[in-house]
Amino acid sequence: MDGDGNTFSNYRVETEENGKLPRKICNLVKFCLFLLVWMYSSVYLITTAPKVPSTFLVPVLPYRQYVIKSRDRKHHSDIDIEFSGPLNKRLIKHPDQATNLDPYIKVQVESFDAMANETALESQAWVLFLLANQDEMSYTIKKEFTLKKKKRRHPQDNQPSTSRGDYHELNVILTNYHSGAFGLFVVINYNPVSTHVGVAGGIMLLIFLYVLIIWDLADRAFVSLLISMGGMGLLCMMNARPLLTEFLKWIHLDCLMYVFLLMLIVRIVDETAVFDFIAALAYGASRGKPWLLVLILCVCAAIFSALLDNVTMVLLMGPIIFRLCHKLALCTTIVLMSVTMFANIGNVLSPLNKHSILKFDIDPAFKAQHITYGNYVLHLIPGVILSMVVAYAVLYGFFQKYLYNTSKVFGSISSLQVRADKLKKVGAHLSQYQNNRITQLRRIENVQPEERKNVDFQLVLSDLKANCIVTNLPLLIGCCISLAVLFVLCLPTIDNTLHHLEPSWIALFATMLLLILGNLQELDVLLARIDWRSLIFIAALLVLFKSIRYLGIDYWTINVIHNLVCNTRKDRQLAVSILVLTAVAAIESAVMPNMVIKSLMVTEAINLSASCDLPFAPLLWSIAYGSSFGENSNLICSLANVIAAGLAHQEGYRYTYKNFFIIGFPVTLATLLISTMYLMFAHLVFNWHGTSVQS
């Protein structure tokens, strides 16, 4: 951003006449680069068939050997196998803790040369330990086997084979050394993605994505679509193209439907006087002090995010923030960013957050450690409160003088005028709404800085209260009933009483009820105000991040965590594990958030607790703090951040990545530091945890 508050994209438009040649060169390079990514992705997507892994249901009999013969007759040096069944994951990862009484099977992969009638390649035998009670639970574990030349007893047998490689047949041999029979579900991938190549390719995609977004070289939604297409092309290049059904799961349609339905509800409620009433109430409580008003909004966002979730709170708080900032001529972007960050901080306690670590399918481990939602909140809420105090101190200390800064607030009035002209084709109501916004922005832009700070409290409060007149009472009643239904149906999901009822279904019930009670006929006008740009951006990001994780970066990260903790002195392992898990969770959430890595990190915390005799609870709290607080440093790695940027864009504000990072990064560092210090103090000094239970 330059001194006048213009972003790079705006600067290019203004200097088009002054520097036509550099601009043409820049556009030509960008055009060629985008076209190259499209061609590369399209060619591989067209020429590569979806990869279908081979699946087997193996009946393993007592003291018997079972051989799975390969369906793929090509020669392979690596093979990836996934086992599902009554497996003891703790002993599989730590075989030194096993005894002679523990049941197990041995797994080995051989490459049989049919022409020479001999085994040419073989892998090392791998021990797969079983649960004593085989009806207790089914676990899934994955292993990559590397095939090497089989050692011969006689030197002359080591001569290279003259047979053709096409006649090699892969055999997976399972030998049961247990007296019981059981079933094992086996998924074989004959050409797994190389972890080193996959991680390198994923990092290159991320760098390309962030370069385009940080410097605002293209629209964010378009960039995410293009790079996600590049991610799919990279998967195809590595012969790992997913099936269409698996690809649709990556989009998380339930998440998109939930956000879309909440947008509908908020747009309908916006037609009532509810948001005007809340804005007047908040301003009255602040007594006209702007930073006290910011504190009230931030605390309310954090509290209600802990009860609901951060996406819902940002959508509900957005109209309130816009009303207050328009009336007081405050820096809308700073206030909106501050409220969004506090919503992310409070979201760590949310029982409805789909990405909460309490939602993962590891309930037996939680029960074994006596971890419930009650003690989860009890242990985390002190750190959340301390983080809120520190976050507000950072915001007030660093950005106090920018709260009335005009150059960073108001920008794209011309873009709003273009949008108003387009909306004339949809409805006069929407066009009038945009024209009113343009008039309001121009009026506030001309206000002098001295006039901004010397606002008459009673006059502004009376103006806010004057807008609280209910003009559509039936719609207001319908909104109250629908929101009540939404909140009531969300309550049983806290303790998984209605575990089959997803938040997206609850939002659908509430939205349909609101449409019926409100008797809304012109849905085209309502749909025109939906932020489709943000929905497309979210969908493309979900596909991109999942494709990058598909390349193996998750398991590489988990191995790094395990090696760092296990190679530390025994008396320092708890402190190191808290630091490492918090830092890795924060970095992961700040770069490319996804529920998969959190699940793997929780599973790794269980393994560390068992192998290193560490208390499980502080490891879990570290992951919770890091994954939630890390979202405040990146505009695109949290649904709430993306939604807030979309709301600001619709209102005509420049909500850029660089602006968000300037505010969010200090807040992230401060909250992570204070939460880590709290965990160290609570669990290293006072030992506020129970004994480690072996999982």
From TrEMBL:
Positions of transmembrane segments: 28-47, 197-215, 221-238, 250-269, 291-316, 328-349, 376-399, 473-494, 506-527, 534-553, 573-591, 660-686
Domain Citrate transporter-like positions: 210-626
Keyword line: Membrane, Transmembrane, Transmembrane helix, Transport
Species the sequence originates in: Drosophila navojoa
PANTHER family per the UniProt record, alphabetical: P PROTEIN
Coarse class of the protein's main subcellular location: membrane
Cellular component per GO, a single term: membrane
Species classification: Eukaryota, Metazoa, Ecdysozoa, Arthropoda, Hexapoda
Entry protein name: Citrate transporter-like domain-containing protein
Membrane recorded as keyword: yes
Keyword Hydrolase: no
GO biological process, one term: transmembrane transport
Pfam families: CitMHS
Topological category with respect to the lipid bilayer: Multi-pass membrane protein
